[in-house]
Amino acid sequence: MASLLQPLLCVTAPADAGRYCTGGDNGGSNELSSPAGLRKKKLATTRLSSTSNPFVKHCVKLRLSSSYRRSCGYALVVGLIPIMEVCRFQELNNEELSSIECLLLLDGMERPELFNLPSTSIVHVSPHVMKKLSGVQSVDSTEAVAIMKIPRSFFDMLGEHKEAVYPSWFRLPNRILVLDGIQDPGNVGTLLRSSLAFKWDLVFLLPGCCDPFNEKALRAARGASFQIPIISGNWLHLEALASRFQMKMLAGHPENYAEASSQISLLSAKLADSLANRPLCLVLGSEGLGLSPEALQSCELIGIPMAGIFESLNVSVAGGIFLYMLQPEKYR
Ligand SMILES: *[C@@H]1O[C@H](CO)[C@@H](O)[C@H](O)[C@H]1NC(C)=O
User: Fold this and answer.
1) Per-residue model confidence as pLDDT tens digits over 42-52
2) In the chain, what are the domains?
3) Locate the tRNA/rRNA methyltransferase SpoU type domain: which residues (predicted)?
4) What is the distance of C-alpha 292 from the center of its chain?
5) Which amino acid residue places its CA nearest to atom 10 of ligand 1?
6) Residue 217: strand pairing partners
7) Residue closest by Cα to atom 7 of ligand 1
């Protein structure tokens, strides 16, 4: 009986979603407006083969719409590797493997080892449906997608929590990477992944940054969006945080230092050593727009010495160098 009900739990999810999610691009959704009908229709099936199924539409909308994700509290993760990485992380941290709401597998795929979880609903889908779900043309590369709960380690200060009350997981931060208007999802994802790799504590997203649960950002982050704490907030939130924890504010200057004035210090092992015991915020701006006036005003600028004639580095590459050089002392 229990195994019969599992897929049902999953398939009925959009019914609930239909009730709660009204923030999507198209406002509400007609297909989801009859939860009872949907539930009845799906009772017998654990396999989806039609792309016009409301549940498939719900998944696609989770992949494409940031506002829909926020109002539902779920994201769509495409690909078995990122899904497994999130599961492995939760296992290592002895967390309940609760983040997978539903796993959608390509026809013929076995339930992967990590998913012997009684609470995970599994639905099989046809190649045609998988293409629609993943947005990837060739299904060879995509065997699975998962609906995952947006974790509690993502905290939106611009949302309901207007006051600067920090979430319960918030501990004394030592290293914070701040992204200042970085829109490119590839950059946001790559920087999240590198921050996690070099044991930075938190990534702070200022306005104008891409949603870390955007499909391309998720692809680049390889699951890091679910693992590293992320705060989305404005400059005032950041300043409050930095002053409360007495953090030194640095900003990376991606331009070639040859042109730079004496106000820019150069990144070196010596500089990194001198900062080893200080809590730091490092702000990185976008390649197109650079740093915001607030960052330029309140941060000490540091540049990466370059012998070449390039004007600047890719922000993900520059970020990787900063994150590595300035990583917390205990890991250096
Ligand atoms: C910089 O690198 C990232 C990660 O590889 C990539 O997604 C992004 O498109 C690159 N930016 C530019 C301007 O090439």
Assistant:
1) 333 478 888 89
2) 2-149 (3.30.1330.30), 154-331 (3.40.1280.10)
3) 176-324
4) 23
5) 314
6) none
7) 186
